[in-house]
Amino acid sequence: MVRTVGVEEELLLVDEVSGEARALSSAVLAIAEKEADGESAFESELHRQQVEFSTHPCASMEELAASVRRWRTEAVRHATEAGASVAALATSPLPVSPTIGTGERYRWLAERFGLTAQEQLTCGCHVHVSVASEEEGVAVLDRIRPWLPVLLALSANSPFWQGQDSRYSSYRGQVWGRWPSAGPADVHGSAEAYHAQVRSLVATGVLRDEGMVYFDARLSHRYPTVEVRIADVCLDPADTVLLATLVRGLVETAARAWRAGEPPGDVSTSLLRVASWQAGRWGLEDRLVHPRTLCPEPASEVLRALLDQVREALEDSGDLADAERALAEVLRRGNGARIQREILARTGSLRDTVAECVRISAG
């Protein structure tokens, strides 16, 4: 049985002329809901300068690619009607004063977390892969941990922050890491232990509920899936499909290892945090911490190691050849962070950078 996969993408609403982020999510969502007759794929997010869509569970990557492109196109159409456009950027390149969304939950977050919540205008991509049980899901989480920073490097798409080059490939990773429950998680060993950890975190009173457990990868509290949350939203929709392909391959590979009785790797959470920092700092431009050797190696070699890790699973699902081509393309042209910097170097304008990214985002 092929595992289903779906993605949630957060998108930035921007002014078509100035490139600045626009607080128009309410208008965009109202248009989307009216056209969808009450069942829209779009949802609000913490800030009114962004919207999120969710694909349905897909059995094939061709189906997922079509769904991602469909909902990005729909987002552009709705935003245009509301007087804006859409960019798949994980942070706003231009200065912005984020506006917290309406709703009691968002008000609670703003009150409890202050500037941390106020500054969280970041856009991620969450990949959901189906699992047969929570026990299998936790076994997968325990075994994919070392590979998650590599996914961050691949997807890195947030080099600019408040009009400046952050010197990071994924500055979103730095901003997101301010949440108290964000980042890598320990090995749990069982579904019972996983849920005990979640209950303990919520019981502190720091977190509002289970939905605020922001691990890099977690059991979804809404669907029977493993949810990998570490990635930036990808600039090019083709990279979203590659990301989802690799995540599904990791989940299937880990589940097979668990069924075969192979234990998870003994990698400390503190080491994974360092590996994630390195991935966010350099993306594909320098060395990454190799998940097997735990030593710095060229990013291209680490990406190829990831492909080797999931090779058998991708062969079985029929995705290997497409994944090899897509990965070679990313290594050739770079991720979103490199593309943004190249556009800025060519145009000298962050406004023009956003405008070109709007075009790329639509595929």
Automatic annotation (TrEMBL):
Q: Which GO terms describe its biological process?
A: modified amino acid biosynthetic process
Q: Which UniProt keywords apply?
A: ATP-binding, Ligase, Nucleotide-binding
Q: Name one Pfam family in it.
A: GCS2
The enzyme's main class, written as a single word, is: ligase
What Gene3D superfamilies is this protein classified in? Answer: 3.30.590.20
MF terms (GO), sorted A to Z: ATP binding; glutamate-cysteine ligase activity
Top-level taxonomic group: Bacteria
Known EC number: 6.3.2.2
InterPro entries attached to this UniProt entry: GCL_type2/YbdK_subfam, GCS2, Gln_synth/guanido_kin_cat_dom, YbdK
Q: Which reaction does it catalyse?
A: L-cysteine + L-glutamate + ATP = gamma-L-glutamyl-L-cysteine + ADP + phosphate + H(+)
NCBIfam families linked to this entry? gshA_cyan_rel (TIGR02050), PRK13517.1-1 (NF010041)
Q: What does this protein do?
A: ATP-dependent carboxylate-amine ligase which exhibits weak glutamate--cysteine ligase activity.
Q: What is the similarity comment for this entry?
A: Belongs to the glutamate--cysteine ligase type 2 family. YbdK subfamily.
Which protein is depicted?
Putative glutamate--cysteine ligase 2
What lineage does UniProt assign to this protein's organism?
A: Bacteria, Bacillati, Actinomycetota, Actinomycetes, Kitasatosporales
